Structure formats: C-alpha cells, structure tokens
Amino acid sequence: MPSLSSKAVRLLRQKWIDPEKLAQEIVEILKGETEDTTSTTTTSTTSTSASSSTLSGGTDLQEFTIVSPRYEANFLQCTDGSGSTVYLAKPYLLRPTTWTNEVYTLVQTMLGTRLGTLTIEHSALTADENQRQVNIRHQLASNPLDIIETAFTETILPFYKVGDKVYGSRFPAGFSFAGGDGEAIQWLDMNIDGRAWRPDASLQVS
Predict the structure, then answer these.
(1) What residue ranges do the domains of the chain occupy?
(2) Angle at the Cα of 110 from the Cα atoms of 108 and 113, rounded to 5 degrees
(3) How far is the C-alpha of 34 from the C-alpha of 27, rounded, in Å?
C-alpha cells in the first residue's frame, strides 16, 4: 500500500473534516500522486530513448586476421573480411623503433640522500624479434665501484600469431602512419588482448 504524503497527513490532522469526505480526499490525493509518478517515468523513458538514438552508430572498429606478425616492423600485416591486405600500426610500446637501443637512468633517493643509480637498456634479439634483451646496471652511491648487473629477456605475451584476430580503429581523417611496405597505414591495433612486454620465467643474473 502506498505511503501517505505530507498533504494527506495534514488532512488527517484536521479533525473537523467529515471522515467520509476525508477518506475521499485521501483517495484523490493518492490517485493524483500515482498518475504523476507514471507520467515522470514515461517522460524519463522517452528521454533515454532519444539519448540512445543520438549515440547510435558506434566507432569505426573492425576485426582483422593476422597474416604476418612482422616482428621486425612497427606494423602488422592482416586481411579484412573481404580478404584484402590491411596494415595495422602496433601499439606504441610494442614498436621496435620505440625501444630498440633505448637507455634511461633512474636515480634512487631517500629523504634527499642519493642511494644509487639504475641504468636500463633495451636491445633487440636477432634470434626472435618477438623478444628483447633487458640490461640493468645498479651502481651504489656509497661505493661507486660496487656495481650489480642483471640481464634477462622480455617477450611480448600473448604472442602475435598468424591467424589471430585483432581489432583495429581507424586513424582520424588526414592522419596516417608510415611503414606499411610503402603504403600508408590508416589503422591502429587496439590491443584488446592486452599484449605487453613480460620478463622471461628464467631470470639470468651475470
């Protein structure tokens, strides 16, 4: 049973009103509130439908099949639903030109005191372009001659494999990505499967 509104409660407190008249007025109040609620719900539903129709169309996203992972390149060679060759740019951090021979240094400090320096270098492995070598050089500030060097391999996981499905989004009009065997690349791999560089299970310390 619906609860009484403040208006109905005020009527109940007016003892001079005839009980039958009071009951009739309360029924009218509740009936009016129900109609208002129904009207509001209908209006809200109509508004939502209008909003949904405005957003229809979605984004320019397509499914492609990998023909060649092209590990040495910044792009994937794929085919679309019609079998035509299409090139997709790889995600930025998975492109060889982004990380090959990359060297950067991190200075370790605590409360303003320098503790040491980490130098990290990435280099390609000629045996497998799906992997890279990571060299880390740790030099302690307290003893500069005390250097710890670590080397290990990182692999793109999951692998890019022939036959895999990837999803690409078209670049904005007027923008293209060079490198598709001489053809402008107009699609970007959205990396739906979350491919990333991950350390090899066997960590080798030299």
Answers:
(1) 6-54, 61-205
(2) 85
(3) 11
Cα 40 to Cα 62: distance, rounded to the nearest angstrom: 40
Separation between Cα atoms, residue 165 and residue 173, nearest integer Å: 25
The closest alpha carbon to 2, from 21, 20, 26, 24, belongs to 26
Angle between helices 19-54 and 6-13 (to 10 degrees): 170
In whole angstroms, what is the distance from residue 115 CA to residue 59 CA?
49
Dist CA 6 CA 2 (whole Å) = 13
What letter would DSSP give residue 198? E
List, for the chain, all residue ranges whose pLDDT scores fall below the cut of 50: 1-2, 11-12, 15-17, 38-58, 203-206
Distance CA 167, CA 169 (A): 7
How many C-beta atoms surround the C-beta of residue 26 within 10 A? 17
How do residues 78-96 score in pLDDT, each as one tens digit? 999 999 999 999 999 998 8
- Give Cα 130 to chain centroid, integer Å: 23
- Residue 77 φ then ψ, to 5°: -100, 120
Tokens of 90: 């790889």
- What is the pTM (predicted TM-score) of this model? 0.60
Q: What are phi and psi of 73, to 5 degrees?
A: -115, 170
Q: Cα 158 vs. chain centroid, distance in angstroms?
A: 17
Signed CA dihedral, 142, 144, 148, 153: sign only: positive
Largest CA distance in the chain: 101
